[in-house]
Amino acid sequence: MKVAVAGCCHGALDKMYETLELLQRRHNVRPDLLLCCGDFQAVRNEADLRCMAVPAKYRHMQTFYRYYSGEKKAPVLTVFIGGNHEASNHLQELPYGGWVAPNIYYLGYAGVVRFRGVRIGGISGIFKSHDYRKGHFECPPYNQQTIRSAYHVRNIEVFKLKQLKRPIDIFMSHDWPRSIYHYGNKKQLLKMKSFFRQEVESNTLGSPAASELLQHLKPTYWFSAHLHVKFAAFMQHQTNSKEELPKATKFLALDKCLPHRDFLQIIDIEHDPSAGDSLEYDAEWIAVLKATNSLVNVTQSSWNMPEKNGLHAKWDYSVTEEAIKEVLEELNHNLKIPCNFTLTAACYDPSKPQKQVEPVHTINPQTTEFCAQFGLTDINDRIQQAKEEGSVRGEYEEEEEEEEMDSTGSAEEPSEYNTDNSGLSSINPDEIMLDEEGGDEDLSTCSVDPSPDHPPDFSASFSDIRIMPDSMAVSSDDAMDSTNEELEKSGVSKQVEEKSLNERPLKRIGGNENGNSGIKKIKRRNQAIYAAEDEDKTE
Hints:
With 539 residues, the protein is an alpha/beta fold.
């Protein structure tokens, strides 16, 4: 089957789906599935905008609300993960995944599903060491700290995914696995993005947690976004025994969604012709969720996952075939994910703007049903209980001053990872930079387009923008021939360029937070990045 993969969507759903329709008209190619690697921005209303960790001037409604309201429907099944520019309050309603709109499915903090026999996994958010060992304690209304920490990857999600033993076909992460750039055309990458050089040479660019998952899961494909550049790599995994067959992962990072930018890729994936067209639960993943349910934590206290170090009575939470069979029996061997999308918030009305509406913590019926069906803890219900008891809010107020530190500092014990550069500590002109210390942005303000039919005038003015050629090399020593051949064999098709949708460029909303590798922290008002803002209003 044909799978379309997109990078950072930034709420531009109309543009994504129009590009797919254009592809079908011009080339008679119709994808069966669309995957989006984060920064999806499922913004329903003005309150959701206030829960996005971007400066106020970048908070625009975009077009997701039309799909949420039912005015439009996604023409192709869409599965996505979260990034670092999301309506965190909306996605938080679905920690185990669920429908954000008809035909649009969110994988949750971490998740695995099946479509036509193809096993698809993913982990949402980006890595930050100072939040990695905390529980999911955040809830709206967020403050300057929690609006960021809400999308930071947690060790419990990585631990759950590491319990999987069955092969994964496709895996998605928002930030890149650390070190993956050593398995592709590193010279070409640094030629396009010279500001990556320090992190690449020190091997600190990317997520160490994602790298750990890559080495453990060894999926056939791994897709990422976040850094707004297209990059391919081919990683041959080491075998643990003579009997184990060699495995390799084809990695692809996608660009962001902008006119005339190469933000879509079409991949041919082997599938089960006898499987249905419905999105399905993965029985092993459900069994893992049940097995690890006792580890759920909704406090901001740091803690380590169980490991074989003499401190834990149990450290292996992988599941047996019998446990998987029990899940199948519970579902009567019907793994189809119910189409139980429910509106949980008022939808944006361009004729009646409500800029002062406050975000609220919501319990989504989909999550309630899912947890009841499989005997799982409803994380949001647990947070609500903790709030009522005063524990979560009280703990936060006591530690608030300690949280006011840079992106690598923490009042907690050191992370198991000693570096923290899932984003960039050097300047990336293609990213929105956020000051971890809070700074001068007011979370209570947002900018809403008066009408989706009359968007503001945006113009792109980037100092280092190039399109990655088809011949992007993918070898650890930058030798191009052998690994390009491997990618061609794998079914990675030529990239899709949209050239004539006659729409104005989207504003640049992609970005990340910054680690600390000895470079002074980047502030929002950095003139080197936003030199053209006064003229163009936005990049």
